[in-house]
Amino acid sequence: MDLQEILHNVIEWAREVGKIQLDKIDKEIEYSSKSTNVDMVTEVDLLSEKIIMDKIKQYYPEHSILSEENGELNKESDYVWVVDPLDGTNNYLHRIPIFCISIALKHLGETILGVVYVPKLDEMFYSIKGEGAYLNDTKIKVGDKDALDQCILATGFPYDKKVSEHNNVNLFCNIVKELQGVRRTGTAAFDLCSVACGRFDGYWELKLSLWDMAAGELIVKEAGGEVITSKINKEDGTEGINIIAGNEKVVSLVKEKVNEIHNYFN
Ligand code: IPD
Ligand code: CA
Ligand code: CA
């Protein structure tokens, strides 16, 4: 597999889908709810997903695809594409200009390529395993802060927050006072990439899905950062991923604060 060639293709697909998302954001958007009444899917999520899945099927017909809206195509392949066609759907519906397209490629369970494109900012984050992380062709690296009161961290809250005690509210209260600041952007992929380029010093969240974080995780690690994860059940019975990202020191500081409330990370 020529990963440089695959990367080139994926970047092109992400740009194409980004243009469509920009074009449609000011028009009337059809939408409905999914796992809870605050978990939305729009016609633009579905269209974006169709375009990306069609490209994967055209270029790499043997590969399997795990994509947010249409589940897994069960093929016996060592390669699995993990796709979030529109990360930040609620932002998109509210015309908040932070949303992105996240595409990762896994080989035998290991992420080998990740692309996150933020159309409104025209920011293309990408990485091939072992070859560093880039933002618009400039190499990026995580920040070097070593105390929480110097850090701006990002976080988010799961869609089942109203009915689950594992909703990050207690963690948030325990951590927020220690920080320089906290941000909630509404897109996990953007949060991870913002850690990778040192814009945010760290990020934690509960109950992500693989498509929210697969590409961003690789990009953070290739930018010299650390990402730790653990598993948790969501209220709808599906498996969620708890995550902390940042430089090694920040991850250990956040992990300590998180584990004071719930022992999510060993
Ligand atoms: C969501 C965003 C959000 C995070 C949620 C995700 P979606 O993805 O990444 O920041 O807090 O857990 O599900 O639904 O906009 O693709
Ligand atoms: Ca998502
Ligand atoms: Ca999505």
Automatic annotation (TrEMBL):
InterPro entries: IMPase (IPR033942), Inositol_monoP_metal-BS (IPR020583), Inositol_monophosphatase-like (IPR000760), Inositol_monophosphatase_CS (IPR020550), Inositol_monophosphatase_SuhB (IPR022337). It is an enzyme of class 3 (hydrolase). Keywords: Hydrolase, Magnesium, Metal-binding. The keyword Hydrolase applies. It catalyses: a myo-inositol phosphate + H2O = myo-inositol + phosphate. Its EC number is 3.1.3.25. Its cofactor is Mg(2+). CDD domains: IMPase (cd01639). It comes from the Bacteria. Pfam families: Inositol_P. The keyword Lipid biosynthesis does not apply. Belongs to the inositol monophosphatase superfamily. This is Inositol-1-monophosphatase.
